[in-house]
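Open question from group meeting: does this chain pack into something compact, or does most of it stay loose? Before anyone orders reagents, we agreed to write out a predicted structure and look at it together. Recording both the input and the output here so the notebook holds the full record.
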Amino acid sequence: MCELFGVTAKNRIKVTGLLDTFFSHSADHRNGWGLVYLDVPPAIIHKEPQRATNSRTLRELLEKDTETAACIAHIRKATIGEEHSRNTHPFEGTDESGRRWTLAHNGTVFDADILAPYQYKQKGETDSERILLYIIDEVNKNTSEGNSEASDISRFKVVEEAVKKLAHGNKLNLLIHDGEYLYVHKNEAGTLFKKEGKDTTYFATVPLEEEGWTEFPGNRLSVYKDGRSVYIGEEHENTYVHNEENMKLLYLAFSGL
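C-alpha cells returned:
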C-alpha cells in the first residue's frame, strides 16, 4: 500500500526531522512521493513518480527546513495506476466556492459504484483521485441545495457521509485538507497513529519515533484546526480487514491477466 504523514499546528513549526524519517521508508514504497506545505504560499504540491530517497528535488526541499502549520506527505506503493506523476499523491481540486481541496490516501477501493463516473473525469487512473472528485461534487451539491457554505459543520457532515459510504468494503485511510481544516480517517486497525503536543498534532501510518505516538481511533471522521480536534463524527461499522484474495484479484485485473 502506501504511507501517510500529516501535521496541523497553531503556529508554524519545523517538521524536517520527522519528514526525513518518513521518507526513509520509501525503500518499501518506491512508486512515488509527494509533499505539500499547505500554509506556505503558493502551496505547491511537489511530487515525483520515483523513490523518495533517490529524489534530488525532495532532498533540496528538505534542506530548506521549511516551517509549516499544515503539511501532508505521501509515499506510494502502487496497487492501481502506473508509476506516473498523474497517479502520485497528494491530489488536489477546487470546489465551486473556490475552496482548495488536497487529498492523500492509504488503501484501495475494491468496490464503489458511486466512483465509476469519475474515471472519465480524472487526470490519472487511481481510485484515490476519484475519491477526491466525489467528495468535491458532494460539497458542491450541498452548497447548491441551499446549505450555507459558511457552515463548517455542514461541510464536515458532507465529507463524513461520503467517507462512510466509501469505507464499506474498502480500505480508506485519508488525510484531506480543505484550505482551512484537516480531515482524518482510518478504518483498518494498526494503520494510522498520532502524536499530540501543545497546539500540534502529527499523523503517520507508522510511529516515526519510539515514544509519544498512539493509535488513531478508527471508523470515524475527525476534523482538526490549529493542532486541535474540532469535530469528531459518529462511529461507523465499516472496518476494513485485509483480504489476500481481494488483492490477488486486484493485481490480476490491472495486469491484464
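Observations to bring back to the group:
The longest strand covers residues 3-14.
The radius of gyration is 17 Å.
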